[in-house]
Automatic annotation (TrEMBL):
This is N-acetyltransferase domain-containing protein. It comes from the Bacteria. InterPro entries: Acyl_CoA_acyltransferase, GNAT_dom. PANTHER family: BLL6696 PROTEIN, N-ACETYLTRANSFERASE DOMAIN-CONTAINING PROTEIN. GO terms for molecular function: acyltransferase activity, transferring groups other than amino-acyl groups.
Amino acid sequence: MEHDLTLAGHGVALRPLSPDDAAELLALVDAASWQGFTSPVPRDEDTLRNWIHASVTTPAKLAFAVVGDGGELRGTTSFYDLSRDQGRVEIGSTLYGRAWWGGTTNPAAKLLLFMHAFETWGLQRVALRADARNARSLAAIERLGAVREGVLRSHRVAGDGTRGDTVYFSVLADEWPAVRAGLEARLAGA
């Protein structure tokens, strides 16, 4: 859904994703960065612009551009399946350019999203998921401090048409203080 939420801190800003970001985001996309998405790897600006348009118009989804302090677009991430009545949201549709893999961009962005979910919205559960074949994303989620919950077998069709399992993780409100402390320590040590 269209939104005006902007979050900033720890060297990144999350602002609403826009179809105008398509050209800059396309430069970051390759098969490895797109792994785990359910649509084929976008090969041109129009395809990516359409994907962004679908993301920003999906109900209960807040799509963000992740921007560094220098103004460079580093990638995208989203809140989705937001249910304030049920006290839950998922974080995903995350993609970063290779230059920001393994650094502080993902933990900083996730810290901002978790803080907003737990401390501003007062939610009780934040979930994350990844294709079981995407070892890099699974490891990144575990490093955030999320708890692995289980595997949904043959849960999704990947962009290449193959079926895959989905691994679910979550952070609950009572776990949030320890997760926050871990992320802040990780960012302070970087």
